[in-house]
Amino acid sequence: MACAVPVVVTDIPGHGDFVRKHRCGLVIPVGDAAALARAVADLAGSDTLRLEMGSRGRDVALREASWACRAAETDRALGSVVTIASAVDRSSRAEAAV
User: Fold this and answer.
1) Distance, CA of 9 to CA of 14 (rounded, Å)
2) Is the pLDDT of residue 22 over 90?
3) Confidence class of residue 36 from pLDDT cuts 50, 70 and 90?
């Protein structure tokens, strides 16, 4: 997606929903080789479809999956862990003092 190439994914949880939401590729049923062939043919046969889906895919990849985005998410998650651990530690100390 980051290379502005539309994707073809099977309709498994998460993948199909993501692609449908961002309209960055085509979703096919799991195990359906004929649907895969049609999807690839559809993309190969339409410059407009390929360019539009590829552009949307690149936009979403840069916005939601860049290293900066992943680093910020990791920082937030670790901050939450530290906050929870500190609260548990304070609570344990308060109980021990009683």
Assistant:
1) 10
2) yes
3) very high
Determine the Cα–Cα distance for residues 98 and 79; give it in Å rounded to an integer: 29
Q: What is the rounded distance in angstroms from the CA atom of residue 21 to the CA atom of residue 77?
A: 25
DSSP-derived letter for residue 3 is T
Contact 6, 57 (CB under 8 A): yes
Contact by Cβ (8 Å): 26, 46: no
Instruction: Determine phi and psi for 10, rounding to 5 degrees.
Output: -85, 155
Rounded distance between C-alpha atoms, residue 19 and residue 22, angstroms: 5
98, pLDDT greater than 80:
no
Sign of CA dihedral 2, 4, 61, 16: negative
Q: Tally Cβ neighbours within 10 Å of residue 70.
A: 11
Closest to 23 measured CA to CA, from 70, 59, 62:
59
